Structure formats: C-alpha cells, structure tokens
Amino acid sequence: MSTTAVQSARAVAKRLGWGLADQALSSLSNFGVGIMVARVVSPREFGVFAVAFSIYSVMVGVVRAIGTDALVVRFSAADSDATRDASRRAGGTALWTGAAVGGVLVLVGVVIGGDFRWLLIALGATMPGLLLQEAWRNIFFASAEGRKSFVNDAVWTVLLVPAFVIANEVSDASASSLTFAWGLSACVAACFGAVQARLLPDPRLALAWLRENRTLWPRFLAETVLFTGTQQVYLFAIGLVSGLVAVGQLKLVQIALGPVNVVSQGIGLVAVPEAVRAMHRGLRRLDAVAVAISVLVGGGALAWGLILGLAPAAVTSGLVGTSWLAASSLLLPLSLYQIANGLNTGAFVGLRAFKAARRSLAVRVFASLAQLAGALVGVAVDGARGAAYGLFAASVVYLSVWWSGYLTERSRFGANEGSDAPARRHSADASSVT
C-alpha cells in the first residue's frame, strides 16, 4: 500500500472515530438527561417531559431530511467556499423550521392550557436552537470536521448540569422548567457552533434551499417517515394480534440490542460524506466504501449479539430485568435481523452518494411493507417468536433489494471497472437525478 493510501485510510479512520465518539456522547447525554429528569420529577411529570423529547426527536428527523441531508450528499466533496455557502442555507433552514414549529407549539400551549401549557411554550421557545444544534453535527461532518461536532455536543452536555441545577433552585423542578433548561443550553451550544464554523445561518435563504433541492428533500422526508413509523406500526399490529406481552418482549430485546444503534448512527454520521468523497475518486472506491460500511455495521451487530448470547442469563437479567428470561428466545432472530439491516447500510449510503432519492425511497417502501408482512405473518403463526423470525426473513429479502438498487444506479452511469469520469460528471449535477 502506498504512503498516500495509508494516509488516506488513517484520515478516514480518524473521521470515523469522531463519528462514533460523537454519537456515543450524544446517546449518553440523552440517557443522562432522562435519568436526571426522572430522579427529580413525579412519574406524571416525567411522562410530560417524554412527550417533549418525542416532539424534538421527530423534528430532528424532519430537519435532517429537508435541510442537512441534501447538504451532505451534494457538498461533502465540494470546495470549501461552496460548502460554507450551502451550510449557511442548510443551517438557515433548520432555524426557519425551528421558528415555525416553535411558534406553533407556543400558540398551542397558550390555547390548550393544562399540564402541557408551559411545556409546549418552553419547547417552542427553544426549538430553533435545538434544531440548529443538531444541524451543526451534519454540517461539521459534511466539512470533514467531526471533531467540532464532538466538541459542540460536549459543550451542550456540560451546560446541562448547571442549567438543571439552576432550574431546580429557582423553582420546584417540573417538566416544563427542565425542558426549558435543556432547550436553553442547546441554544447556547448552537450559538457556539456558529463561532466554531465562523458563519451565520440565514433563515431568509430557507425557501431558496428547499426549491434548490426539491428533487431530494421530499423523498428524503418520506423515507424518514417510513423508517421511523414502520416499527411503531408493526408493534401496534403485533399488540392487536398477540397482546401487550408480545410487544413488551420484542421491545425488551430491541433495548438490549441498543448499543448496535449507537454504532450504526455513529458510522452513519461519517458514512454518507465519505461515500460522496469516494465517488469523486472513482466508482471502485465507492464500492469499497459501501462494502466496508456494511461490514462494520453488520459486524458490530454480530459482535454485540454474540456478547448478549454468551452472557450468563443472571447477568443479562440483572441489567434489563427479570422479563429477560421469557424474552431471551427472541435474541437470535432479532440479532440476525439487526445483522441483515447492518449489511444493507452500505447500499443505502451508496444510493445517497448517487443522489438516487427516487430509487432509495422505492426500496424503503418495499422494505417497510416487507417488515409489516413478516411481522404480521410471524405473529399469527408463533406469537412474538414468530414475529421476530418474520422480521428476520423480511430483512433477508430486502437486503438483496437494497444492493440490487445500488448496482442498478451504479450501472446507470455507464462506468466500466476503473472508469471514474461518469461518477464525477454525476456528482457535479445534482439536478440530473430525480
């Protein structure tokens, strides 16, 4: 391997490390917030806070779809001036969305009153900062500056401690006061992100950004809805067919397999930007990146599944509760399900690099329908265990569809083995792909 290749591999590994570290920090921070709130408020108040966090989580997916996803696929390999200009518009879209949604939340809070009044007002008032802070993560990784994203998340995490202490001292801790403290600290971190990036997001450019990327963001948004909604739908359907015990068993094993999601999301922060840069160096380089990503995520799922499977039942039950003894029979099929999902990650990332939003959405629709069919047929045959094996069977089917979609898009560019020009031409013209 040449010196240049070694240096390039080290640079990619370093960026991957920042992605994993940032996602681990973000996940631990969210976990810590949940624990801190749960310790100081009543169960009812914690439920109210959970509603606020759920609204925020939904809006994070929306802002990624309409704002920063297009930035990542179009500008990760662009020159710095173009990337900065696009970052200003994408960040402005996050601010604009946060202001619009935040205004609605405040208005609804004023109108409805009750337990949710001050919660919605607090969340709405800080929503612009919450969404901009999240946008900085993708902006920094698109610019190959993952370290800045980690630092920004660290700043938010550190600020949470005094913010929660002050909220508790100034008034009795409540879901609304803690939500405001959480959101306000995110606003400070968002302002710090502007200092790090040395640019100011411009919400006046949001509509122009949406028009410019109209062939991408509607399909990205539809994918986000399908991805986040499919699991909720099949869990609800399983509950109707087989009861809440089956749902609880599935959910418990999914929680136990949660660390795989941290790995997947951490790699995901880096994967699409790296795939876009690889495509600029040639399609064979993109192939290598896509395969490597699948191996990393799928291998991580395999490793964690083995750790859980080989751990003594007493240890696992001590971590997730005595319900594990009844749910543990689902570990094998759900681990295989996660492995298969990990193996399709590279194909998804490759389609993002090709800006093939239409094909990616079509595959996502197929995958969602396959999951629903597999879960429902499985639960009808053998309860929760059947649903788990049905999900695994579905994942094997759509794994091949994801990679077939990737190979089809690859062939569209007429690239022979080792020919780079088609990839470069395509990368330069985002509007050509619908």
TrEMBL record:
Q: Where are the transmembrane segments?
A: 46-66, 94-112, 118-137, 149-167, 179-200, 220-246, 288-315, 321-340, 361-381, 387-407
Topology versus the membrane, per the UniProt entry? Multi-pass membrane protein
Tell me where in or outside the cell this protein is found: Cell membrane
Kindly state which keywords UniProt assigns to this record, in alphabetical order.
Cell membrane, Membrane, Transmembrane, Transmembrane helix
> Its domain of life?
Bacteria
Q: Where is this region: Disordered?
A: 415-434
Organism encoding this protein: Jatrophihabitans endophyticus
Q: Which PANTHER family match?
A: PSMA PROTEIN, PST FAMILY PREDICTED COLANIC ACID TRANSPORTER
The name under which this protein is listed is: Membrane protein involved in the export of O-antigen and teichoic acid
Q: Name one GO cellular component term.
A: plasma membrane
